[in-house]
């Protein structure tokens, strides 16, 4: 049977960012240094394949610190944690390694500096997301207020409209956040913003690459987990950029082939916590059904690398 021709646009950059790369390395090096088990509070990154791989090597994933024994190392996820968590680990004299992405830590430091100047902070983010919980948890309750939408900006009750600053979750949609920032600045003209954009380079780059491929694709698939904020934003960006069928898939087995019947062009991207192995799996699945021509569409080149914490670079 002759296979139908298909052009597959591979968005670049895609997949692992420097923060995710570093976080995975931290877990692997901790197991190497201290032996198994090493405990990890919350999924180290939002990807089941990655988490299962680390579990097989000796990582034990828990939701809360009280599930960890005092005598085993614990690692905090790339999304960041409230200040109370490392304080509790110190009180229990635990060995802990903080795998918080340095770009998330930058937002934490920013929030603290604003607070030192007596400013109340408004955070643009998703309620319940670990990164939002971690950032809001850097300061006492009430010092950081959360907005998710432009509508929230109109409703928010602040202490002093002239003493405000804002920060953002690093994995948001650049376009949606722009609208919320504009609404904040319109309502609170004195509000202080970050020195440099909080949305991280990797989120921005992946969204730009998706914008480049979406308009010329019959369908666009984002390889990523349903609880990955940056992956879900890529699907939204693709739909807004003109792709009529944009879907999130964890693995090749999740592809709805009936929905792709009769397509001639498809684009593939991946969230910042999705390994390239899973992207290749999706490409191979297309190759079994179509006569595939792959075209890489590159909108940026990334050279960012973050060092692992010193404690892991020292001998045990």
Structural class: alpha/beta
- Give the oligomeric state of the chains in this entry, treating copies of one chain as homo and distinct chains as hetero: single chain
Helix content: 25-40%
What is the rounded distance between the termini? 60 Å
* Arithmetic mean pLDDT: 96
Beta strands, count: 12
Parts with pLDDT < 50 across at least 5 consecutive residues? none
| Major sheet | 5 strands, parallel
Q: SSE order, as H and E?
A: EHEHEEHEHEHEHEHHEHEEHEH
What gyration radius follows from the Cα positions, in whole Å?
21 Å
Q: Give the strand line-up of the largest sheet.
A: 10-9-11-1-12
Give the structure's gist in a few sentences.
With 316 residues, this protein is an alpha/beta fold.
What does this protein look like?
- The structure is a single chain.
- The chain has helices at residues 18-34, 48-57, 84-91, 102-116, 130-136, 150-155, 174-187, 201-213, 229-240, 276-289, 310-313; strands spanning 4-12, 38-41, 59-62, 74-76, 96-98, 120-124, 144-147, 164-168, 219-223, 246-249, 265-270, 290-298.
- Helix 4 (102-116) packs parallel to helix 5 and helix 8 (201-213) runs parallel beside helix 9 (229-240).
- The chain starts with a strand and ends with a helix.
- The chain has eleven helices and twelve strands.
- The mean pLDDT is 96.
- It is flat.
- Strands 10-9-11-1-12 form a five-stranded parallel beta sheet, with helices on both faces. It has a four-stranded parallel beta sheet with strand order 3-2-4-5, sandwiched between helices. It has a three-stranded parallel beta sheet with strand order 7-6-8, with helices on both faces.
- With 316 residues, the chain is an alpha/beta fold.
- GO terms for molecular function: 4 iron, 4 sulfur cluster binding; 4-hydroxy-3-methylbut-2-enyl diphosphate reductase activity; metal ion binding.
- (2E)-4-hydroxy-3-methylbut-2-enyl diphosphate binds at residues 46, 79, 129, 170, 228-230, 273.
- The active site is at 131 (proton donor).
- Its EC number is 1.17.7.4.
- [4Fe-4S] cluster binds at residues 17, 101, 200.
């Amino acid at each position: 049977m002759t296979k139908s021709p298909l052009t597959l646009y591979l968005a670049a950059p895609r997949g692992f960012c420097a923060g995710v790369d570093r976080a995975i390395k931290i877990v692997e090096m901790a197991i190497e240094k201290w032996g198994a088990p090493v405990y990890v509070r919350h999924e180290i990154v939002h990807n089941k394949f990655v988490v299962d791989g680390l579990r097989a090597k000796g990582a034990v994933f828990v939701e809360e610190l009280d599930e960890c024994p005092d005598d085993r190392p614990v690692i905090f996820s790339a999304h960041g944690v409230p200040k109370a968590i490392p304080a509790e680990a110190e009180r229990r004299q635990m060995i802990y390694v903080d795998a918080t992405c340095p770009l998330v830590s930058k937002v934490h430091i920013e929030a603290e500096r604003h607070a030192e100047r007596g400013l109340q902070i408004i955070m643009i983010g998703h309620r319940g997301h670990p990164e939002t919980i971690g950032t809001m948890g850097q300061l006492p309750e009430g010092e950081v207020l959360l907005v998710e939408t432009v509508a929230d900006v109109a409703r928010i009750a602040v202490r002093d409209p002239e003493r405000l600053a804002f920060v953002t979750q690093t994995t948001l949609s650049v376009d949606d956040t722009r609208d919320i920032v504009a609404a904040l600045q319109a309502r609170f003209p004195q509000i202080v913003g970050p020195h440099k954009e909080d949305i991280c380079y990797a989120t921005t780059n992946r969204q730009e690459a998706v914008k480049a491929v979406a308009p010329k694709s019959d369908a666009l698939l984002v390889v990523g987990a349903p609880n990955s904020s940056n992956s879900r934003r890529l699907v939204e960006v693709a739909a807004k950029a003109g792709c009529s069928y944009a879907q999130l898939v964890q693995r090749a087995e999740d592809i709805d082939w009936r929905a792709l019947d009769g397509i001639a062009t498809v684009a593939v991207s991946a969230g910042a916590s999705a390994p390239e192995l899973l992207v290749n799996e999706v490409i191979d699945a297309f190759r079994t059904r179509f006569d595939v021509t792959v075209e890489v569409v590159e909108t940026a080149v990334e050279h960012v690398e973050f060092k692992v914490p010193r404690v892991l670079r020292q001998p045990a």
